[in-house]
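Annex B. Sample input.
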Amino acid sequence: MASKDSVAVLKGVGKQAAETLKEMNIETIDDLIMTFPYRHEDFQLKDLVDTPHNERVTVEGRVESEPSVLFLGKNKSRTTVQVMVGRHLIKAVFFNQHYVKTKLHIGEIITLTGKWDRGRQIITVSNHSMGPRTDGADFEPVYSLKGSIHQKTFRKLMRQALDLAKGDLEECIPQKFMVEYKLAPLAEALEWVHFPPDGESLKQARRRFVYEELLMFQLKMQALRKKNREEEGGSFIDYDVEKVRNFVQSLPYELTGAQKRVVNEISKDMKEPFRMNRLLQGDVGSGKTVVAAISLYATVTAGLQGALMAPTEILAEQHANTLAEWFGEFPINIALLTGSVKGKRRQLILEQLAKGEIDVLIGTHALIQPDVQFKKLGLVITDEQHRFGVDQRRVLKDKGYNPDVLFMTATPIPRTLAISAFGEMDVSVIDEMPVGRKDIQTFWMKKDMFGKIVGRMEKELAAGRQAYVICPLIEESDKLDFQNAVELFSQLSSYFHGKYTVGLMHGRLHSDEKEETMRSFTEGEIAVLVSTTVVEVGVNVPNASFMLIYDAERFGLSQLHQLRGRVGRGSEQSYCVLLADPKTEIGKERMTSMTETNDGFVLAEKDLKLRGPGDFFGRKQSGIPEFKMADLIHDYRALETARKDAESLINSDEFWTDSETECLRRLLEESGALSMARLD
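Annex B, continued. Sample output.
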């Protein structure tokens, strides 16, 4: 097959060029033709009337004046000439190209490409040719290259490779999808993506490759999901519907519509013979804990045990206290196991757990110690799942015979990212807040108003409430001029001396010191907590009603929203002040967005658009694949479609036997997504 041939067969590829191409992960003809341009130079002739300010444009016109040259210093010049383009008399400016003076003659036709200044009616020329445009492509591909290979050389190699591979291309997308979505055939799409005859062809080529790339990715996700569910088996949790209904009715408030929907999704999973692998997303304060409680109670009514793992002792204790209150009148034995539980108390818990006398165990990573053994673990819930490594989560799961698994997160993740990063999971979303919860009033203020803000904070403290002050750095930095926690702690301690206690928390404190500081704040001993972003996501301090975020422009929208969620947990009106002097438009937009909405999902979508998928999670931890063509922000509809199609393929018998899907099965196998043993 020509497409599997080495690029060395191409004219112009010697030893050095082959080495450079190899650095670009191009070794075969196939590798080369699947290296897409990251943009195209557009040389289509445009009408200046329709061209926006500062856009790149190609026009054809007649020279109307003698060119004038201004020398600006050594090897620097500016050549200006008037050109009539249609009905517009414009100026064409050539920088450092004084030699064009000898070529430009009044009455001659010239083709110009450059940046259009609509206000001053000037084109700053980057490319030009004398005479009308008669040849050359309207679109020229631009590739990301390395070493000594230039664009012109690479285009020639691409042209040869496409001609060689033309009759040797295998179509992988099933025919029914090709027809349903009117997708361009592979040979045409490859030609158009590299050398499009017009804008529409380029658009159709991109549409085809976006879908194919997302379909392939989703096939891997769905195959993995199927394998996890069916090969591993799972707990069939035959819970008592009537008992669960009675428990729900005993809760201090009625469930929201979103909570009811999510509980139904989880309940349906629990009744299945497959292992549940579900991500539960819910904004801060949306009521994920009560959903966890209902799920744990259902598990216990089926004669099984449940476990809830939280990232810190404070959060674990908080969950234990809440569940103990809700389960109060029901015969359920709850235990708390953290690093602080030692000696005889710990030993007793371990013995009771192994005998099945403890129904629900709540704790930190202490739950995954080797000597922690359950008798019949049916459900594992991990709170703030991103705080635990994959191995830690797996160890807890392995303490039962493939128990159902529910991951919870208060970080609102845009649906496109959830489908991509957690594609092998089912995703449930609580997108509704409990009735009567007051929105946090958010204000954006400039740094010269710091004194006024502290005065406002003092009013809240005088009313017996507490405040957070968040800042991005711990100690002074020569490179970044941002207020730091240590300095701010010192200032506020001095200001409130004798009136209110100020605490300090940051990442360099030992975990015991962090726990103790947070506990003092939770119990009201500290009135003002100055902290970096280590403040726990789920910590519940209902008495905290004021938050000041210093240098707020340093944080992404999602992080700002997470921080803001530390307040507003009690019945009093809460406030969040963003202290920021953003220099960029994006920074200003972030601050404005925060003052306009308290909806974490709206902000998450906005954050995704402002920052991109890699930066949303942090590039290294994201789990978001790097796509050649697809863009998760703009191609979300294609992603939804690809997920639906991949799910139907993977779950159909035909996919595993049909000759038409052989290519997809082979690609799945090559990707290492699964062993191609039939998953049934």
